[in-house]
Amino acid sequence: MRIGWVLCGSFCTLAKAAEQMKRMVAAGHEITPIFSAAVSATDTRFGTAAHWHETFTAIAGRSPLTTLVDVEPIGPKGLFDVLVVAPCTGATIGRLANGISDTPATLAVKSHLRRQRPVVLAVSTNDALGASMRGLALLKNTRHFYLVPMKQDDVEQKPNSLVADFSQLETTVLAAMDNRQLQPLWL
After folding, report:
1. 12-65: per-residue pLDDT in tens?
2. 90-107: per-residue pLDDT in tens?
């Protein structure tokens, strides 16, 4: 499959995304990384922007798309069979649920959806069971959106936090290509 892979600024899960991307490339999928503005430019305790650029370029064998101009042709040119957003932050969920496409991440999704192809979201946000739940629920019930099964990752310290089970990402992509939501969704 030709997969566009949007990486958003849930920096603590970028290593999990890299691991899954390696597995999917090894399985023969052609992957194009797409960086949110945060991943493109932010250095954190989980790695520098340069580190992530080098890491994902090495895995995919191509440089990430990083600007609005880079991602706009995704839909018109039919570049991908499926678009993965992993990790998908609460900010991205909110923008997508409200039709806001002012970032490379959200414009990539909007452009891809013009061809009515599947979008797989691997949620990773500290407020999924709080402020982001409204958007998450809306997207779960919107055609062409599919969610990677998820769970609370730290009920004591972060009771509103949800994180996708990244080990189920490829299975979710395959189900989405068959127009099916992988179940159970809540682990």
Report:
1. 999 999 999 999 999 999 999 999 999 999 999 999 999 999 999 999 999 999
2. 999 999 999 999 999 999
Q: What is the largest CA-CA distance in the chain?
A: 46
- Residues 121 and 159: their CA atoms lie apart, in Å, by 21
Is the residue at 36 inside a domain?
yes
Q: Is residue 186 part of a domain?
A: no
Please check whether residue 109 lies inside any domain of the structure: yes
Alpha-helical regions (H) of the chain: 14-26, 37-41, 49-60, 68-71, 90-97, 104-113, 133-140, 169-177
Range of the domain at 132: 2-177
Residue 69 near residue 103 (C-beta atoms within 8 A): no
For residue 139, tell me if it sits in a domain.
yes
The type of residue at 99 is G
